[in-house]
Specification:
By secondary structure, this protein is mainly alpha-helical. It has 19 helices and no strands.
């Protein structure tokens, strides 16, 4: 190896390869639209004097992200006029990026004080455009990475998403304080550009495979049904889907209640900002880095199983914090461990979900898998978390979230023992590029 990469530490070197670096910039563009309809929009509405009940109702816009599998088949099966000569993935990357920018600008131009309904429609449009952009970005990322790069590439994508969402949110606040919210949102539309530049510079992913083309209604049916049929023909596919649905329930139940615990224990905004936002952010980034290393060293099965245990045990730390009470060191330890485990799990589990895809249907299959991975936990949290806390108290609630995580762990262990993990892997994890050396494929 020659050039500057030869002087980079061996553990860091995989992160400097072209495809993982591209995944970082793709992640930036993926995270920005989500941030602009999350905390940023909440701040804008609050500063405009909108009623709190109306503000919280805007959270419904996020449901669009859970429904993206309904139209993901379009990205796999429909060719865009004129742009298609650039390639299926690149053409959709440019089109979806332009739509995301237009939707963000549209949200900038509406005035919540004049029409809250128009603002709601604009927010849903940003969610739809952002979710569509996510579908294309995920497909482009997965097909650009070689099998050995899935772990590192997932890590770089997580880095990009987190940095892009934080940067877009912070940049919007800074611009809004000086030039107003309209200028802030228009400026933040620029965060959609990095992924578009990646597509133009790198071109069509080397591992993209075009599905067999048909005409008329047969083409539509093939685009919708073929990705599902291909997945469920695999041995153990139904168990894999059950694992996707169950694996994150405990983690999601716990994560969405942390701020309630902090408020109950009397932590100040400064303490929450320092330990939860600040310390937790860096712990998460460290976890992402470790996740990429663990995936490469331990292989897919052992790294995923380890990360599932870490995410389950991290809930116990909050049971301890709930028992101890207000204690900054205990809060720092709990937040640090939880974010470290989430960072590791975010890499290894995302790499596994990426590996489940067939290269002909990457957009459709990954959209379905990623949506299924969060829907059960979000529904249960929204319908039962508050009642469980009131009934059992915080300590027992976090103990319960640990117990709820065990079925997913045991199911994955059973899948390993029965060979279902290997049998369910798609061509994403088994088909290298022409230039890829076979010894580089990761252990499973």
């Amino acid at each position: 190896m020659s050039g500057w990469r030869a002087h980079v530490p061996a553990a860091v070197r995989p992160y400097t390869e072209r495809a993982p670096l591209a995944a970082f910039f793709l992640g930036i563009s993926s995270g920005a639209p989500f941030a602009l309809i999350a905390a940023t929009l909440t701040t804008r509405l609050a500063q405009d004097g909108i009623d709190k009940r109306a503000i919280t109702a805007f959270a419904l816009a996020f449901l669009v992200y859970n429904l993206k599998w309904l139209w993901a088949w379009v990205i796999d099966g429909v060719r865009l006029p004129l742009l298609h000569r650039l390639g299926q993935r690149v053409s959709w990357l440019l089109f979806a990026g332009a739509c995301a920018m237009a939707a963000i600008v549209n949200l900038a131009l509406v005035d919540p004080k004049t029409s809250l309904a128009a603002t709601a429609y604009a927010a849903i449009l940003v969610a739809f455009a952002g979710a569509t952009y996510d579908i294309v970005i995920d497909a482009y990322r997965i097909e650009s990475l070689e099998p050995r790069q899935l772990g590192v590439g997932s890590g770089m994508s997580q880095y990009g998403w987190r940095i892009g969402s934080v940067a877009a949110g912070a940049f919007a606040l800074v611009v809004a304080a000086r030039a107003g919210w309209e200028a802030a949102y228009i400026a933040c539309a620029l965060f959609a550009i990095p992924a578009m530049v990646v597509g133009l510079v790198l071109g069509e992913p080397a591992r993209h495979r075009e599905p067999t083309r048909r005409e008329g209604l047969a083409a539509v049916w093939q685009s919708v049904a073929a990705p599902l049929a291909e997945f469920f023909r695999r041995h153990g596919a139904w168990l894999v889907l059950l694992f996707v649905l169950l694996h994150k329930i405990g983690d999601t139940l716990a994560n969405l209640t942390f701020r309630l615990l902090f408020n109950e224990q009397g932590y100040t905004n400064d303490e929450i900002a320092l330990y939860d936002v600040g310390f937790g952010f860096w712990a998460y980034l460290v976890g992402i880095f470790l996740g990429g290393i663990l995936y490469s060293k331990l292989g897919l099965k052992r790294s995923v199983l380890l990360s599932l245990w870490l995410m389950a045990v991290s809930n116990l730390s909050f049971a301890g914090l709930a028992a101890i009470g207000h204690n900054n060191w205990a809060m720092a330890a709990a937040i640090g461990f939880e974010n470290l485990a989430s960072g590791i799990g975010g890499v290894t589990v995302v790499a596994y979900f990426s590996a489940l895809c067939d290269l002909r249907y990457t957009a459709s299959q990954y959209a379905l898998i990623s949506a299924a991975a969060s829907i059960v936990g979000r529904v249960l949290t929204g319908t039962s978390a508050g009642w469980l806390i009131q009934t059992f108290g915080y300590v027992n609630f976090y103990l319960l979230t640990t117990v709820v995580a065990l079925p997913g762990i045991l199911l994955f262990w059973l899948m390993i023992r029965r060979g279902f993990v290997d049998a369910s892997i798609g061509s994403v994890a088994t088909t290298p590029t022409a230039a890829a050396a076979s010894p580089a494929a990761p252990r499973r």
